[in-house]
């Protein structure tokens, strides 16, 4: 049934009131006659020959809120919008397919990077964009017209310059089509791994960590690529290159000690507005925190530095405390704003901190987190680690354990006080792909940190996906308020397979392996281009859009083609399914030219290439006694990204593919495979 305008609690609301998106619901009381993206809205634009004003954003987006307040809540602006356009509002988190297409179009039309809110004007018949921008102010400023001026100008151009716009639209569609990779006969060469490392090294900020200048994003995939390079170098070379670990470790340390991390509550913000990782854009996204949780665990196993362990614990605890729904799935985001201002929930007045902390706690806390310096955020203090606890302890004549105990006590006191503030808004929709990223992170944390409660959290989220978002042999993309809908995307399937492979290395589950295989089959049926290679972002049964992309480069999410190639290789080697390996091979061949042009932008595909060139070692342990768990833990010690360990109880006799041949015996057995080659089983870890 089509959403319709209706009255609710004596307040007129538009069609967005009946949607599942919290972002769309934020606009339900606007005087704008908003539609969600739906066949009825598209038909209306076609029938009335009115251009479509497409506005794309998300609930935690600060500038989306600003534009909504300035323009969409203004009756005069709304009257213009309603008279001149069919207005469609889209949540980019529910519809990444639309966001991906129109962000690319924006870059082509404006020759500038996009962002949110995204403002695009579409032809009413074929939905091709003819003008695009991002935020537009209420009044003209900074070289931008007012939004009202823009509306009038765009509508006039549509009426008076129709032929020229049609010509431009045709050119745009041709350029979009030309952007798609054509593929080639050759696999990417191993030298691309070196080239990516050297590109990252050139842009590395040796003073503050990270790559390039502000704004600085976490780029977890780049840091994981560096850690994997260190592990490969250590395994193959008696004198390994120390730089990859130094770059990754230093960057992650600065992010953890700095303002990007919530020093009291755990979890990472989306990006830093400065080079020092001091002042973040305060929103917290599930898709950042899942990979960063796994990365902290990896850094801890690679270095044994407790800083990374503590950051992982704080992040996982935050997720369970604030981001897991009673139904099991993980919520999407926490807003940057509270009480109408960005960062209000997180920042402090110095006198309020001093009043709450003891005489022993305050000088140390102030020295570590910068309260002994001028304010760093709009006259107030956002906690940022200017000094390490060890440096502050030495300055104050304290021993380190005493200082750390005082800091922990101070953080707990301030966290408790902060809980009484008005919290940022939480977007409580549950997205399959983002949940998959967090399931993987929680599973890694459960294994590395020996935390069964983290495993239980991950299993609850997986159970929610299976019961609610897996329907008739297909995934759905999103859930909110009892409604699961929208065809899932490449990222949903690829990341969920990867998460299941992570869970299988914590504890074996034949049901999880069967689910991973089901997902892989849909991935091939719906998304794989068997002729040219690679995976489309949308499935064959998805609605037709102006462009169908095969995303190769990482952006805020790891590229679906890279994740799919790596996950299918690992699953294919585990069960001996050649079709999965062929699909991964085709993906790498398709991506080769794009990877050569900009190696460091393809970290996810480079990790898949690394696995392809030198397949990971796979250990399958079969035992009926406590040696199953003991050997598994021993085999997983240290940072071993090129080793997968599966501990399968002896009583399980029905296993798929090549696993069926890895039978249990009277005594425990360990099977060792690399790629398609498996060795005879041995009776102990020592025999390996």
What does this structure look like?
With 688 residues, the chain is of the alpha+beta class. It folds into 4 domains: 22-179, 3-Layer(aba) Sandwich (Glutaredoxin), CATH 3.40.30; 193-344 and 427-613, Glycosyltransferase; 347-420, Arc Repressor Mutant, subunit A (Orthogonal Bundle), CATH 1.10.10; 617-687. Helices cover 48% and strands 12% of the residues. The chain has 24 helices and 22 strands. The strands form 7 sheets. Strands 3-5-4-6-7 form a 5-stranded mixed beta sheet, sandwiched between helices. Strands 15, 16, 17 and 18 form a 4-stranded antiparallel beta sheet that branches. α11 (286-303) packs antiparallel against α12, α14 packs across α15 (389-396) and α22 (578-597) packs across α23. The protein is globular, with a radius of gyration of 26 Å. The relative contact order is 0.08. Residues 1-10 have low confidence and may be disordered.
């Amino acid at each position: 049934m089509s959403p319709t305008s209706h009255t609710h609690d004596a307040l007129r609301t538009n069609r967005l009131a009946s949607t599942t998106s919290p972002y769309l619901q934020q606009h339900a009381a606007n005087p704008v006659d908003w539609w969600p993206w739906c066949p009825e809205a598209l038909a209306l634009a076609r029938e009335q020959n009115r251009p479509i004003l497409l506005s794309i954003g998300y609930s935690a987006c600060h500038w989306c809120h600003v534009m909504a307040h300035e323009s969409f809540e203004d009756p005069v602006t709304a009257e213009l919008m309603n008279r001149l356009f069919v207005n469609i509002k889209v949540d980019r988190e529910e519809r990444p397919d639309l966001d991906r297409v129109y962000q690319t179009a924006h870059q082509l039309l404006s020759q500038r990077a996009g962002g949110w809110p995204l403002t695009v004007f579409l032809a009413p018949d074929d939905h091709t964009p003819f003008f695009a921008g991002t935020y537009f102010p209420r009044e003209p400023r900074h070289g931008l017209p007012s939004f009202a001026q823009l509306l009038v100008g765009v509508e006039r151009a549509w009426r008076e310059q129709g032929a020229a716009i049609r010509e431009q639209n045709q050119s745009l569609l041709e350029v979009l089509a030309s952007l798609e990779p054509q593929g080639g006969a050759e696999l990417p060469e191993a030298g691309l791994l070196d080239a990516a490392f050297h590109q990252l090294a050139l842009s590395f900020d040796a003073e503050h960590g990270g790559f390039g200048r502000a704004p600085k994003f976490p780029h977890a995939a780049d840091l994981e690529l560096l850690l994997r390079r260190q592990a490969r170098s250590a395994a193959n070379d008696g004198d390994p290159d120390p730089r990859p670990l130094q770059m990754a470790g230093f960057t992650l340390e600065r992010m953890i000690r700095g303002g990007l991390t919530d020093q009291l509550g755990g979890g990472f913000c989306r990006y830093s507005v400065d080079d020092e990782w001091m002042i973040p854009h305060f929103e917290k996204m599930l898709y950042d925190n899942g990979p960063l949780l796994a990365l902290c665990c990896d850094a801890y196993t690679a270095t044994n530095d407790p800083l990374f362990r503590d950051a992982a614990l704080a992040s996982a605890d935050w997720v369970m405390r604030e981001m897991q729904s009673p139904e099991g799935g993980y919520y999407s985001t926490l807003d940057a704003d509270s009480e109408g201002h960005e960062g209000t929930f997180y920042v402090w007045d110095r006198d309020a901190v001093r009043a709450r902390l003891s005489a022993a706690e305050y000088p140390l806390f102030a020295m570590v987190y910068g309260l002994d310096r001028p304010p760093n955020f709009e006259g107030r203090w956002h906690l940022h680690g200017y000094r390490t606890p060890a440096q502050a302890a030495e300055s104050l004549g304290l021993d380190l354990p005493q200082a750390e105990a005082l800091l922990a006590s101070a953080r707990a006191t301030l966290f408790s006080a902060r809980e009484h503030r008005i919290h940022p808004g939480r977007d409580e929709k549950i997205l399959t792909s983002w949940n998959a990223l967090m399931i993987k992170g929680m599973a890694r944390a459960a294994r590395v940190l020996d935390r069964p409660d983290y495993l239980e959290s991950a299993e609850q989220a997986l159970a929610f996906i299976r019961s609610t978002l897996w329907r008739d042999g297909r995934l759905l993309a999103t859930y909110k308020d009892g409604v699961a809908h929208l065809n899932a995307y490449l990222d949903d399937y690829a990341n969920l397979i990867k998460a299941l492979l992570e869970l299988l290395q914590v504890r074996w589950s034949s049901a999880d392996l069967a689910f991973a295989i089901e997902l892989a089959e849909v991935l091939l049926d719906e998304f794989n281009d068997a002729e040219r290679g690679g995976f489309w972002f949308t499935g064959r049964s998805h609605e037709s859009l102006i462009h169908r992309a095969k995303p190769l480069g990482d952006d805020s999410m790891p590229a679906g083609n890279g994740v799919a190639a790596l996950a299918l290789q690992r699953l294919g080697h585990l069960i001996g399914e050649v079709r999965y390996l062929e699909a991964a091979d085709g993906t790498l061949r398709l991506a080769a030219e794009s990877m050569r042009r900009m190696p460091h932008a393809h970290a996810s595909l480079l990790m898949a290439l690394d696995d392809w060139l030198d397949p990971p070692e796979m250990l399958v342990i079969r035992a009926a006694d406590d040696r199953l768990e003991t050997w598994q833990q021993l085999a997983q010690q240290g940072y071993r990204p090129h080793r997968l360990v599966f501990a399968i109880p002896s009583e399980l006799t029905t296993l798929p593919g090549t696993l069926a041949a890895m039978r249990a015996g009277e005594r425990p057995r360990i099977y060792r495979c690399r790629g398609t080659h498996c060795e005879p089983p041995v009776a102990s870890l020592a025999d390996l």
